[in-house]
Amino acid sequence: MPSTSWGYRAAVRIGAGLAPAIGLVDRKVGDGHRQRRGAAARLSAWAAGERDAARPLAWFHAASVGEGLQAESVLLELRRLVPRCQLVYTHFSPSAEPLARRLTVDAADYLPYDLPEAADLLLGALAPDLLVFSKLDLWPELATRAASGGTSVALVAATVSPGSGRLRWPARALLRAGYEAVSAAGTIAEADAERLARLGVPPDRIRVLGDPRFDSVAARVAAVPPDEPLLRFGRGAPTLVAGSTWPPDETALLEAFARVRARRPEARLILVPHEPTVDHLAALDRRAARACLPVPARLSTAEGPSPLLVVDRVGVLATLYGAGTMAYVGGGFGRAGLHSVLEPAAWGVPVAFGPNWQNSRDAELLLRGGAAEALRRGAGSPGDGAVLAERWERWIADESSRMAQGGRARAIVLEGLGAARRSAEMLAGLISSRSPRR
Asked: Does domain 6-212+418-432 have CATH number 3.40.50.11720?
C-alpha cells in the first residue's frame, strides 16, 4: 500500500502549528482550529459507546458546504440501500457545521488535522469499512492508513478543474499516495476522470457517474412547503435574490438596484452575504445610504417584504431563492470562485453572475442552455452595475422570456438527476464485497 512522504507530513505539521497564529487574524481559521483540537476525542467517545461491532460503518468526509451537499444525497441513498450501515460524517470548514447538524447520521464532527497519530486514533476507534471523500478533498495520511488497515477508500462527485493546483508540482507529488489508495471513484464527467487518473487514481477504478449535487438540490427544493414563511418576502413584486455575495458583488448589485428603482420603484432586492458578520452588515448599510437606497431591513427583525432586505443569518439561502423571480449568485467578481448556481436553477428562476465563472461546470451548463447570464467586467463604461441593471430590467419587462429562461434552468437540473443513486450503488458494492471490520 502507498504511504505519504516525509515532505507531506512536514507540510501538514507546519500548517497545523501555524493555525493558532493565523486564527488570531482569521476568525474562520481560529474557530476551526479550536473545534479540531477535541474532535478525535469526541468521535472516539462516540465509538466507545455507540459503535455496533455487528454492523458496517461508512465514514463520509466533505470539506465544506458545497462538498457536503454533494455527499448528502449519496449518503441518504446509501442508507436506503444498506439500512443497517452506521454513518459518520466529518467536515473541515466551520461553515459546514449547520449542515452537519441536520444530516441523518450516527455521528458528525470536525476532521482533525491529517497527522499520523490522529488518523490512527480515529481509524482504530471507528473501524470503518468504507471511507468516502466528497469531490476532491482527499486527505492522504488518512486515506493511505485506512487502505493499509483494510478499509475501502472511495471518492464521490469527484471533479478536477483544469486549473486545479493539485495537478501542479509540488502538490501533485505530495498528494499522489492518497489518490493511489482509492478503491473506487465516481467522477462527474469524462474530463474529470482523465484528470483524476493524472493525480494517481488507477484508471480501472474510475467511473463517470454524474453529479449528486443535482439530486441534493432538487430534493431540498421539493421539500419546501408552499406556505414556508421565507417565501413571503418575494411575493407581490419582482424580486432579485442575490446569494453568497462578496463586497465586489455587492458594489455592482447596489449600483444596479439604484438604477432599476429609478424606473421600476416596485423592484425588490434580497441580499444574502456569504459571511453576514456585524462589520460586513454595517458596511452594507453605509454603501446603501451612499447609493440613496432605502435603509436595509434585517431578516431577523423584518415582519414582511421590504424594498431592500439583508439576510443576517446562514442556512436559509436555498429556500430564499424560491422567493425570487430572478437570481444573482456571488463569487464571480473575485478569486474565491463562483458559488452554487444550482439552487436558483432548481427553483426555475434565471440566474446572473460575474465574469469569473470558468471553473464552474454548472455555470457553463446553464450558459450553454440559455438559462443564465454572465456579466462582463465593467472596465469603464458601462460599469458592472449598469450591465446588471440592464439585464435586471429586461427580466422585469419581459415576463414570458424570463419564465422561459427559468424553465430551461430547472430542466437542466432535472436532466442531471440520478447520480446520487449510481454513486450509492458503487459504495454499497464496496460494503457488500467484504465482511464487517469487527
From this structure: yes
